[in-house]
Structure formats: structure tokens, C-alpha cells
Amino acid sequence: MSQPTPAIVAQGAVRRLPRLALLLLCLAYILPGLLGREPWRNADMATFGYMVEMARGATSWLDPQLLGLRPEADGLLPYWIGAWFLQWGPAWTSPVLLARLPFALMLALTLAATWYAVYNLASHPRAQPVAFAFGGEANPTDYARAIGDGGLLALIACLGLAQLSHEVTTHLAQLCFAALTFYAASAIGHRVRLPMLGLVFGLGGLVLSAAPSLAVLFGAGAALLHFLAAEPGPGGRHRALRAAGLLALATLLAAALASALDLWRWRILLPQDAGSKDWRSMARLLLWFTWPAWPLVLWTLWRWRRQIVTAPVNLHLALPMWFVAVTIAATLTTKPADRALLLSLPALATLAAFALPTLRRSVAALIDWFTLLFFTGCGVVIWVIWFAMQTGVPRQAAANVFKQAPDFQATFDLATFVIAVSASLVWAWLVQWRVGRHQTVIWKSLVLPAGGAALCWLLLMTLWMPLLDFVRSYRLVADRVAAQVGSSSCLQVKDLDRDQIAALQFHGGFRLTPMAPDAACTWLIADPQLLAQRGNQADPARWQFHARIQRASGKGDEFHLFRNITP
């Protein structure tokens, strides 16, 4: 038999978080970065480039290419989704916004799926708080709703979610499908239709987004855990066997789909291949990427330790632990590590939520004060540097900005300023509300972390957006190339990455072609670092160095422009 639950919660502690406030918080987190932003370099720009080429019919939908380069990720579903929106969207709408819309919906779906997953797990009888001798304990539905609110707040608060969840990449699609799978595995013991729909889209989406191994591991592990969680009695066994059978069937279908489409790939870094991995960097990634969820997760594991290894299995602990274990293993054995770690956040937020009904007052106060100082400090820094960009005061802050981006010219936008001021005032009100001694609800300790994360992301995407776009997008590079060769010129390309090719095509409108002796283009653009690494150099008898093109910061992504001097 399992030990009594460590959760002791009165009815007054499970008041629901106002739905309007929760909705506004989610919108304040999702919308910044969706509007008024250029595609940023690396995966964001490269994925968008493939979508544009597919939408205009310049490459195959089954084998998309950019100048002969295939996508780094094998799963094509995210590229199809973005290309469909580009084709179906109105012509007057920005293609960047059209491609970004479905991924914003995926982020919203991730947040919703996480809330419902936590709610269903908290509704399990073994997750409920201790019953009081004379009544007054939390109502099961109200308790599950309060834990769900805490799980959603914990997810929004995770620092690693912010940038990666606002990019147009296959990794955000994987996060969405993993969250749907997690919801389905959490709810399938209570109902069938919606969880099965979640399994179809979740497992199928993971398979078609280059993560078939994760799909099979998630599904198979969840099926086994439901089988081991069967409660005594015919009804409990029937529900557990039905859930395990449905999960197993969906997993087999996902594996069959991956085999039929030949999507299985070996991506594991064997020990001899991973000798150069910096394990200290990996540890730092785990610490900051999952903050502030991981301290609460450790607290959950400690306070619920007697319920972890029991028979029957406690699903509200075992299921998120399995999802976290699978994604942590993928993080340690695949690259890029941060993209793999992204998929662990819904399950980590779930475990963090179950720390809330067991938190001591001193631990909750420590979380509050650290969060208050950290996010208030971050907000002040963002405002100070924005003020320095506008006025030159403080002088040192302005000098640091313009040293990194010497050609940047700050502009004042009234709308973004009003939004940033409003968000800062809401943060001040939130801090005032939280420091009040009358707050007893169990989700109160995650209000400041979630609100602070949303505040800082919103401030960055408003006050700092011109600077970030200037430094992280390729528009300036394309403009500088166009100033040398003309916007409609043909360029031969040598040793450029996918995002660089996509940026020159989209921002510059250039006609690009791989470097070839019989190509008619007068100009050649190349990455000197890749030229040196691969031992390739432009033939000096044919190509004369013309100009060096650098990004805004003058660091990295330097291009060399050559002119054809042969008759």
C-alpha cells in the first residue's frame, strides 16, 4: 500500500486563478515576438526559407532544397504547415507573419495541453490531499484546477521556453506534439475521445516532425505505466487495461508510420563520439533552461518520495517522470541539446506543480524574494539600456550598445513604449498583490515567476526589438550586398549555410545559383570561414575580391563578395 499523500490543502487554498487574468498572461507571452519581427538567423531563418520555396513551387514538397541543400531535420510536417499558410493567406499579409501564425497556435496549444494534463493527473485519487477529520479539505475538482493553474504558470516561467517557442522551427512543432501526447497519456484513463485525438495528432506529429523514437518511447512507457497503475477491483483493472491498450495501439501505429515513410534515423552520440561535449556547459544548460521548475521538481520528488515507488503506480508522478527521463536522455545524447531539452518542459512543469501543496512558508518566501529581485532587476536593465539607446545616458550603457552595433540608429515608437509601460505597471501591481499577507492560494508562489518571465520577454520584444532585429536578422547583410551589386542581380554562391541562402533570397531578392564554371552570374558571394575550413578558394584568375560584407555586430557571418573578371 502507498503512504498517505503529503498534500495538506484546505478549501480556501484552491481558489481558481481568474480566467481573464490567466488568458491575458498567456496572450502577453505568446504575442510578443509574433508581430513586427524579422526571421532571425540560424534555424528560424532557414526553416522559413524552405517554407517560402515550397509555397512558390520552387522546390519539391517531398524533398525540399535550398540550392541543393536539404533541411537538417528529416520531418517535413512543420515545413508543410508553414507553406500551406503562406499559400492560403491573403496576399496583403506579410509572409513572415503568415508562416509564424501556425507556430503561435502551436505554442498556445502547448500551454492548453499542459494545463489539461496537469488537471487530469491532479484529479487522480492518489494525487488528492489528505481528508480532514472534520471536513474543510480541498474539493477534488477545485484542487485539480488549482494545480493545473500552477503547472501552466510553471511552464511559462521556464527561461528556456521564451525564444525557442517563438521561432518558426521543427522543434516548436515537436514541443506541441509532445505536449499533446502528454495530455493524452494523462487523460486517457478518464475519457477516450479527446485523448485519442490527442494521441493521433501527438504521436503522428512527432513521427512526421523527425522524432519517431521519442514518439514510440513516450507511447510505450505511458502504456506500461497505465498497466502498472491498475487499481484493485474490476473497474480499476478495466480502465487501466483499456488505457494501456489504446496507448499501445497508437504507439504501434506511430511506429508503423515511421517505418512506412523510412523516417528512422540514428542520431545518438556514442561515448567515443561525445568526448568533446562540455559536460559543465550541459549542467549549466539544465540549470538555467529549466529554471525555476527544477528546484520545485526536486522538492516534489523529496516530499512525494514515498509515493514514487509503489504498487499500484502513482500516475501523477510516474508519467511526468517518464517524459522527463526520455527527454533528458535525448538532451544528453543528441544535438542541439537545448532543442531536445525543450520537450521536457511540460512534464517538468507538471512535477513542479505538485510541489505547491507541500511547500513550506519559508521555501515559498525564498522563491518569491529571489524572483522579485531577479525579474525586477532584469526589467530595470532593459529599461536603462533602452533609455541609453534613445538619449545616450547613461553614457557607458550607450557606448556598449553602439560598440556591438555601430551602425544602429535608435528610433522612438509610441505604441511599443505604451505597451512596455503598461506591462511594467502590471508587474508593480502584481508584486504588491503577492507581498500581501492575506494570500493563501497554492499557486501564489508561481505568479511572480510566470509574470516576471512574461514581463521580460514582452519588454525585450518591444523596447529592444529594433536592436535585436538589427543584430540577429540578415536584412542588413542583404541590404549591404544589394548596395554593391543591385537588388535584382544574380549571385553565385559558395559555402553558405542554409539560413544565409534563405536570407539573401528573401531579404535581397537575389537570384542565387551554386558556383559553377559555366554559370552566367557576374558576382560570387562566399563565407570565408567555410572556404578556409574546406580548403576551397575562389580562383584569382577569374574572381577578383570586391568587398567584405559584415553583419551588424561585426562579429561572425562575414561574407566576401567577388566580381567575375574573365571576358
What does this structure look like?
- The chain is mostly helical and 567 residues long.
- It has three domains: 73-130 and 138-263 and 279-358, no CATH class; 361-472, no CATH class; 475-564, no CATH class.
- Helices cover 60% and strands 5% of the residues.
- The protein has 24 helices and five strands.
- It has helices at residues 19-30, 43-55, 77-88, 95-122, 140-157, 161-164, 170-187, 193-208, 212-228, 234-260, 279-289, 293-303, 305-308, 315-333, 337-342, 345-353, 361-391, 395-404, 414-435, 447-462, 465-472, 475-485, 498-508, 528-534; strands spanning 490-494, 511-514, 523-526, 543-549, 559-564.
- It has a five-stranded mixed sheet.
- Helix 4 (95-122) runs parallel beside helix 7 (170-187), helix 5 (140-157) packs parallel to helix 20 (447-462) and helix 8 (193-208) packs parallel to helix 10 (234-260).
- The radius of gyration is 26 Å and the shape is globular.
- The mean pLDDT is 89.
Question: Which keywords apply here?
Answer:
single chain; 567 residues; mainly alpha; 3 domains; 60% helix
Structure annotation, total helices? 24
Query: Could you estimate the helical fraction of the residues in percent?
Result: 55-70%
Average predicted local confidence, pLDDT: 89
End-to-end Cα distance: 88 Å
Strand content: under 5%
Tell me about the largest β-sheet. Answer: 5 strands, mixed
The number of strands is 5
Q: What's the helix-strand series? A: HHHHHHHHHHHHHHHHHHHHHHEHEEHEE
Q: How many separate domains?
A: 3
> What are the segments in which pLDDT stays under 50 over at least 5 consecutive residues?
none
Quick one: overall form?
globular
Largest sheet, spatial ordering of strands = 2-1-3-5-4
- What structural category characterises the helix and strand content? mainly alpha
What is the gyration radius calculated from CA atoms? 26 Å
